[in-house]
Predict the 3D structure of the following.
Amino acid sequence: MAITILHWAFALAIDTTPGDDIQVYCMYRLIGVSDRTQLTDAIHPIHLLKSDEEEPTHVCKWRGVGCSDSLTILGISWRIHSYRRVDFHWMPGTTMNVIINRIHYSHYTELCTRKLPRALRFCKLVRCGLHGNIDLRTLPMNLQILDLGFNVFAGTVHLTALPVNMQLINFEKNKITTVVVCNNRLPPGLTGAYFHPRKQKQVRFRCLDADIIDHRVNEKFYRPKASERHLVEASMRIHDIN
């Protein structure tokens, strides 16, 4: 109830129309803005406006934001080297595809996979300073591609309850020490799960239901296969990224 009231109060403050308020609020919070007066200062360092004439409150016109004909946010594609920090927990719940590169996560806490958009299918958060442990057992159920390469995730990850349609996982150049796998529970369409570590440290693989781990789970470098490139391209055609 408190969150709902807060959303409506914020909507009135930024002059949005009913139905737009929650996604606008989420986008503001995503880039670390709590009210409209802070918006211009937040947007310019990461070049989200295509021109100075653009109205910054129209989030569907931000560079790299893809929306449906009904102005529902479906995708975010930001490949900008910036020290501006964002909070990935505030991506709108309708977001299906995300590519964010070199924009740092704002929290000192760990990334909570329960807070990722439930509609998410394609998620690429690369070189974003993500750290700590990560729980792959609470990923969005529709997720197909997860690329978290070149971050600082550490500890143990479990490949025991992945989304049924998961096709690709990449943790290249993180600090994962242990990968727990249940071969019989790996998604049938999984093409690979890559865990090549930082600084030539070895990753320990532990299989719960067999003596030999499934060959699709390994510590090789991630080198996209033709089929995987097709998956990425197909996922990004769902929305129009400007």
About this structure: The chain has two domains: 1-63, 66-236. The helical segments are 2-13, 21-30, 39-43, 226-236. The longest strand covers residues 73-86. The first helix runs from residue 2 to 13.
